[in-house]
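Slide 14.
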Amino acid sequence: METTSRATAPAGVTDRSAPRPGEHGESGELAELAGTAGFPWYGLDEAFGGRRWLMQVGAGSDGTVEHGALGHGDQPSLRSESEQMSRRFAVVVTVAARPLRRSADGTGVLEATSGSSAAWLAGSGLLSCTWPVQMERSLRQDWLEQQTDIAWDLADNLGGDGWSTLSLPVDGVPVDFHYRESEYGWVLAGSAESYVHLGAYGRGMSAYGLGFGQVPDLAAYTD
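Slide 15: predicted structure.
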């Protein structure tokens, strides 16, 4: 991740979102791109029996997949605030573990990824599905910028008072995650032994009973 902007996704990374249900277009392309990732994808483990979908893939300017998100449960909606709050979902974010490195164009340095990278992507992901849609547009933008700054500061200080510790299984092994709740939902972040950092966010589904596991086949998320 780069640190050139606090109010946007990491510079040099493009998020490509899957179409909404019933829409067509880039879903096949998104799945194809996801399949090129050089790291294992993570989702909720087999204890979750609900709907799964490929939500997002983030690739660098050279096309290398850097991170991605897999959705579980109801797909988030921005149609109305009441509909937003009624949706039950959990999204798992997988971030490739990358060392400090030069950007693809050679003009800058990409910060090494960490648990903070996963926390930022999870926090901004939760914001993306909790917009106050009834608020006047300019005020809504102010709200989003304020909340984005808060999410960044929290992600940059995982050892701070804004986080508690929650132990959840990853591939059957207990892992300590940084965890926080808000009126909009919950966010957690940590690292797995398989050279990835994990983030997650959700609403309506308790984080306390979740478990994570490697996804051996993305077909369950792209069918």
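Speaker note: The chain has five helices and twelve strands.
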